[in-house]
Prior knowledge:
Blueprint: H1 5-12, E1 17-24, E2 30-34, H2 45-52, H3 59-62, E3 64-66, E4 69-71, E5 94-100, H4 106-122
Antiparallel strand pairs: 1-2, 1-5, 3-4
Amino acid sequence: MAGWNAYIDNLMADxxxxxAAIVGYKDSPSVWAAVPGKTFVNITPAEVGVLVxxxxxxxxxxxxxxxxxxxxxxxxSLLQDGEFTMDLRTKSxxxxxxxxxxxxxGGLINKKCYEMASHLRRSQY
Length: 125
């Protein structure tokens, strides 16, 4: 899905992120676009399944793995309407994943991710 690369370029443009991906999770989970050579390009369908799965109890204790890299979950807002911290609602078809650079405030990354997720949602993704 070459058209998705423009979204990744936009997310990376200001230099606050070290990695970004847009991942489809309906039907056949796959990475639609990601930064070449970085972690998120290696996200597997099984990892996507964990992200969107119903068992959310182990996220905070065990974390999860994305592209083979262990990640911590700070907040999971899957079941809260209007939140895009983890935009994993079943009405959507895409996940927006960002990894901020060291020293960049998480709120800035969260805002950027929220804005992209909102745009994609308005575009029916």
